[in-house]
Amino acid sequence: MAEESKVEMKNIFAMFLLLLSAASARGAMKAGILPEYADIFHSPDKSSMVLTAVAGGTEVMVSDTAVRGKDGLFWRKIRAPGGQVGYIKSSDILPRSSPVVMREAGMQDLPRIGADAEGGHGDWQWRFTLRAMGIGGLQTRPSAWVVGGDGEFSYSFTRGERGYDNRRAALGVAASSFNRVLFVTLSVIYRVYTQSRAEPEIRLRMGRDLQSGRNGFGIEGGVRYPLALGSGPQVSLNLAGAALMLLSSDSLVLYSMLAGLGFHI
Prior knowledge:
By secondary structure, the chain is mainly beta. It folds into 2 domains: 26-121, SH3 type barrels (Roll), CATH 2.30.30; 128-264, Porin (Beta Barrel). The chain contains 2 helices and 16 strands. An 8-stranded antiparallel beta barrel has the order 9-10-11-12-13-14-15-16. It is elongated and about 100 Å long.
């Protein structure tokens, strides 16, 4: 009798493990990450430590069961490609599975944006940028401290399967004003992709000072940092350092720092 009880207990325990394994297998699914960058947190709370960030379109394993965090948001457990296990906001997940699985996971109402919405074209990306910057720096010949402003409108012309591929390079027009100089230029812009929010930018400029008629060129290196991550128009903080030379017998050189905002649509 005792032996039969032991066998029965073993069978129950084996069945329990089988059910647990099945539940675990069902508790994860392939998913994409939205928006282009998504933070993975240590716990289901925005105030917890950020473990890493994942680029848009990256496939990860994510739980199909959401939990409500202290902040009132719904979160899902996630395993990133690097092996980190943490939590991600449910609103940052785009399922890549059948409608049945989506419905069972309670994710059928997620907005259809990114690769699925664009028919495989890539993550949501912006094309046009309007940037306004303040200038502070030092000019030579004559030597003087300068304060001014810089405005630029640009269009991203590259194409690719991911959002960041579609804005790597851009062409623009810009105007810089400082100390009786109005420098109007063409800009060539290259953006460097990273897995963080910060996006380095390099600018080459060539144009003409409308006040003196002198031609000139400049180079700028900086970084843009989006204030929000989402699938619509975006505002970013921009910081940069630049050098500008106006060509003449007594060429003027301006070394400056720039800070301002960018608006992307």
